[in-house]
Amino acid sequence: MHITDTFGFAIRALRGARARSALMLLAMAIGIASVVLLTALGEGARRYVGNEFSNLGTHLLVVLPGRTETTGGPPPLIGGTPKPLTLDDALALTRSTTVRYVAPLIVGSAPVSHRQLEREATILGATAELLPVRNLELARGKFLPPGDPERGAAVAVIGSALKQNLFGNAPALGRWIRIHDRRFRVIGILKPMGESLGMDLGELAIIPLSRSQSLFDTESLFRILVQATTREHVARTERAVSEILKTRHGGEEDITVITQNALLGTFDEIFRTLTLAVGGIAAISLAVAGILIMNVMLVAVSQRTAEIGLLKALGAPGGEILRLFLVEAGLLSVTGALLGMATAYGGVWAMGHLFPDFPIGVPPWALAAALLVALLTGLLFGVLPARRAARLDPVRALSGH
């Protein structure tokens, strides 16, 4: 029998038993849709974390005071009393040719008020370099002016939520606010950017580093953010930062450098494993679909014994009968897989509209893998019914036995 005749025969057989075919198509479609949707969710989670870290800035290194293993909990829980980082340490890092920007930070909390309105806010002492390092965007006004970090004007850039709480719909640029017992003039307002690694940028007030040192009575830096010139220079920059600060701290390795690439690599590995695990769990539904195909096709063999006997009486060898049933199983599997993919893409589209901030997406490898597994599942579980049909005795089959 020619290959086109084989496919035509299989298609007519499937059309002749619409209810049975629809049941098998539904089982395969549900299995494929489950695999693709759960894989898309895992991929979306990986992209979401990647975007969150990208919002921090590109080619970023974070320098922390203290060197050591952590003892559990959110990093870094440093043992002992580390030597503090200073503004001179931060300025020394600019000597490296692989460093583009250095942004020293001091973080604290203080009441921020305007007239009778007051709000507790996070105060960030920084320099003009924080804007490009953290990829911050301004809705109005300007950022901290460049200049000597040891001498800063009494100016502030505030978050959108803090502006709304203190000024409402009234303009804030040029107005004076009070942070603790100091007065600052508002020169800029950040665009709404939500939270970034636990810090609500809308409730933030950014002031010059020297002013924050005076406000909180400290010379110690909370962190130093360093941006490398390119992604390829991140490793060299990490070594340079470690060497410069080791020299400045009397030969002691008392700082920790966390690279953005290392964090992203770790999260990528975690979510890749999670995606594969979830996809594997969902693949169990494909096995269930395959078992259903096998059972329904075994019933089909018993119902089509006379047809099989006629084919064998006309000279069709056992291998031809085997191929006919395997083609039926393959057609059911591929068609069910395509229906499942269409259903999965419909689900992805719906979730994309319901949760626009979550970058859900189907990785191409998941589609190829789902189609291949569906085809293999259908053929694997179709072998037993096909072999049973091929072994039927033509005389007994024609008599309906």
Automatic annotation (TrEMBL):
It is found in: Cell membrane. Keywords: Cell membrane, Membrane, Transmembrane, Transmembrane helix. The chain crosses the membrane at residues 21-41, 276-301, 321-345, 365-386. Residues 281-394 form the ABC3 transporter permease C-terminal domain. It comes from the Bacteria. It is a multi-pass membrane protein. Residues 21-243 form the MacB-like periplasmic core domain. GO terms for cellular component: plasma membrane. InterPro entries: ABC3_permease_C, MacB_PCD, Macrolide_Exporter_MacB. The keyword Membrane applies. One of its GO terms (molecular function) is transmembrane transporter activity. Belongs to the ABC-4 integral membrane protein family. This is Peptide ABC transporter permease.
